[in-house]
Write a structure and sequence with these properties.
α2 runs antiparallel to α5. The chain starts with a helix and ends with a helix. The strands form two sheets. Strands 2-4-5-9-6 form a five-stranded mixed beta barrel. Strands 7-8 form a two-stranded antiparallel sheet. β3 and β4 form a beta hairpin. By secondary structure, it is of the alpha+beta class. The chain has two domains: 71 residues; 118 residues, no CATH class. It has five helices and nine strands, in the order ααβαβββββββαβα. Its main location: membrane. Pfam families: SURF1 (PF02104). It is found in: Cell membrane; Membrane. It comes from Sphingomonas lutea.
Length: 230
Amino acid sequence: MRAGRLVLPALCLAFALLFGALGVWQVERLRWKLDLIERVETRLAQSAVDVPATIDPKQFEYRRVRVSGTFLHDRETLVEALTEHGPGHWVMTPLRTERGLILINRGFVPQGRTAVGTDRQAQVEGLVRLSEPKGRFLRANRPAENRWYSRDVAAIAEARDLGSIAPFFIDAGPGQNTGGLPIGGLTIVRFRNAHLIYALTWFGLAGLSAFGMRLAFHTARGQRRAAGGR
């Protein structure tokens, strides 16, 4: 009987430890997210630099860079997008540089409009972005049908027979296209940061579980006394 009375307090203790551990984990995630935001804000504030010969995209993400080369407009890819201008497409154009091909997101074209690529020689300034493999949630890229929902550099390179290409793309800044289209400079830098709320939730549940453990323990002790110490 004594062991049976301790089951509920033991369960409450286990939940308190579990929720407490999850709260600590969310605090660590909060520190990581704040550090990430600080690093990105620092990169965004820096002046543009030439694209290095060797680059780690993760360490250079959202860094402002510039590069010169020749646009291959016949190898462009349109990627479905929704922006402040409504539905439309990102115009992804390969740029041949001295160091090889780099995929450039020249900007956004509203649905029903066309971006005519007239300038082949170009100097692009923009932000380094990581590839977006596999497509969006519930919407996978379909290269065979030329339907693109994410900016997957490797898949686009394969579909357009581009061969070796940089493992990142560049979001071109505003005002770099003749006639105003595509519309550049639409990169949204926003990081969801709800880790503090999650941490407080887990710690709150840990506190409730600890209170439940104490209550269950005192209840079990009261039952034992009422039963004559059995």
